Structures are given as structure tokens and as C-alpha cells.
User: Fold this.
Amino acid sequence: MEIDELERRLSELSTSEIAYKDGMAFDWSIMTEHVEIDGCPVRKIGQPGFAYAQPGMPRGLTIRKNSRFNAVPEHVHDYVELSYVYRGRCPQTVAGERLELGRNEVLLLDALCPHAVAALGEDDIMLSMTVSRSFLRRSLESSLSRESAVSRFLFNALNSETDHRGHVRFHCGESRRIRRYMQEMLCELYDPSPNGPEIVLRLFQLFLAELMDCYERELVRGAADGAAGPTALVTGMLGYIDREFAACSLEGMAAEFGLSPNYATALLKRHVGKTFRQLVQERRLVRAAELLCGGATAGAAAHAVGYENMSFFYRKFHDKYGCTPAAYRR
Assistant:
């Protein structure tokens, strides 16, 4: 399927959308199941078995276009939902907060996060991805670098936020990758190829990786603007270490974020469980191992990542990898 055909398919009014446009209203009273959220009954919509099974999609993931001209009252689900605005805008009320998603933005909603969706206009296209929590966790783990302190921290922070706050908004309107990955997944949905589920699985993992990059960039911008909370500051410092590990100091990093060295150390220790020195050593050793695999000598690898004392480098490398640099290189 070509993108022009996808655009036509998404714009086409369904039978129910034509009815809604003509004034018919969906009878939400047939959804009789409710759950109690903060002492108030909230309607529950959808069933896990239906949500996680769709032809051509990997088990645990479905994608459906939201009906236009039909408001959806406050409700919760049994599953995690990712709302994606393909075109136009989508006003929502999420956990009592009014927000409006713009083109190419994504909203992650935990299963028990109450939300309502206003009626969409004809030029507003929103897609809902329903995801099992286990599928989301596995996909996140596959999407992120196992060696990146930033990735590990963001993974834990995102899981914490979705478990407790209930929703995360990704301001990714300028990301070309988010749109491309979504378009390719939709093409597989409407015109499946023989290996469609595997292709969609890989695209979804790339989609998540780009979401996390957008999330990190937004947090780092908040840190740079001086309006950052602890999560943004720690993310910014971890990114700084990832970039500057070969020649950085605690004092230099703290000054970059307008912090005292003692406060920077306390933030890292509290939120990551490691000191600045430990994080720098980890990053240097990971990069040295990569260089050794690429054919570099131990001396060249040590020098490239900031070690001047070879004995210290050999000792730290052996502590992490259980062998000498020469043995690792072989």
C-alpha cells in the first residue's frame, strides 16, 4: 500500500461515522461495567481478549481508528492505550485535566486512567493502539540500549509514571520517524504482507525508541530552561556523561546544569543509585570494549576513553568483564 492510498483509507467515512455525522448518537449506556476510581464509579470499555487480537498484528497489539463525530464519555480500560493523532487535533480530558493533542503527538494511558474524548471533526484522524502491559514492557526492553544509563533511567521513570500518574504525553510533533513508523504499521494493518506481524513488531519497537528519544529531549530542554524537576535534571546529567565521559568532571557537569557538585551527586545517587565517578567509569569501559571489538589495541582504547593510567584501566576492565583487554579483543 502506498501512502496516498493510506491517506484515502483513513479519510474515508465508515458506515458508523456517516450515521454519527447525520446526528445519530452511540448509546454508551449499554456499557454497564463500572470500576471505582478514587471513590467514584467510572465506565469500563473494552475486553482484553478483543483488544489484544487483530489479524496481521503481533499478539498483544492492535491499532484502530477512532470514530469521528462521536464523543466518548469518561472511561477506563483493561489495557494500556497509546493515542496517536495522525491529522488535525484531538481534545481530551485525562484524569480531570483538559488537554489537546496535536498532529503527530502521542498520549500513553495506563489501564485505570480515566479519560474522555471529544467528538472529532472530519479532518481529525486519531488512532488508538491497545497494548498489553507485558507486550509493552518487552518492547521497551528491546527498543532501548542495555548499556545506556539514560535509557535505563528513562525506562524506569516511564514505568513509574505510568504506574502512578496514569498517563504520559509525548510532545513529538516534529518527529519524522514517529509518523513514518506509524504509516508503515498502518500499511501492514490495511494491506498485510506475509511477514506482517514480525514487521509490525519491529516497527513498534522503533516507534517506542523514538518516543523515548522525544521524551528525553523534552526533559533535557526543561533542565536547560531552569524549569526542571529531578527527573529532567538526572536525565540531562546522564546524557552529559554519555557525551562527555572521556573528559568530564563533576564540577563541570554541575556547572552545566546550575547545580552545586554536592547536590548533583545527591540527585544521581538518589535516582540512579550510583555516583558520578561510577557512571563515568561504566561509560568509559563500555566504550573501550566496543573499540576493542573493532580492533583497537588496549592502549588506544584506554586513551580514547580518557584513561591515562594503564594499570588502573586494566584493573577496572577486569573487574567489569572478568578478563584482560587483550583476551576480550580476541
Observations:
- The mean pLDDT is 87.
- Residues 226-329 form a domain with the Arc Repressor Mutant, subunit A fold (CATH 1.10.10.60).
- The chain has two domains: 3-216, 226-329.
